[in-house]
Amino acid sequence: MTPEEVKAACESIMPIIRIVRDGVLPLIQIGIPIILIVLGTIDLGKAVIASKEDEIKNAQKMLIKRCIYAAAVFFVVTLVSLVFNLIGTANKPNGDEDIKGTLNWQTCWFEVE
Questions:
Q1: Whether the predicted pLDDT of 63 surpasses 90
Q2: Cβ(92)–Cβ(104) under 8 Å?
Q3: Domain ranges of the chain
């Protein structure tokens, strides 16, 4: 298919793809880990200011857990994207076209500007 045909075929779902690809996924992948680490740091700061040893230890444990959760969120989004890309490109004898005249979802995903 020509690029013009691809744009015409994907035109109806372009706004949705743009929102997901440029808004939702980066927010999940980058925003949530940053929020988790900042909240853990704030909790640790509060415990240090309070100068109570048991609160500091609990805050350190919570910060470590939140850092692990942040890394997990980051890598889960990356892993899911990788798996979907592998599934989308598996067993395609004709490149971008699965059946004559139809498009693979990946074609529309990467066509968004």
A1: yes
A2: yes
A3: 3-89+97-111
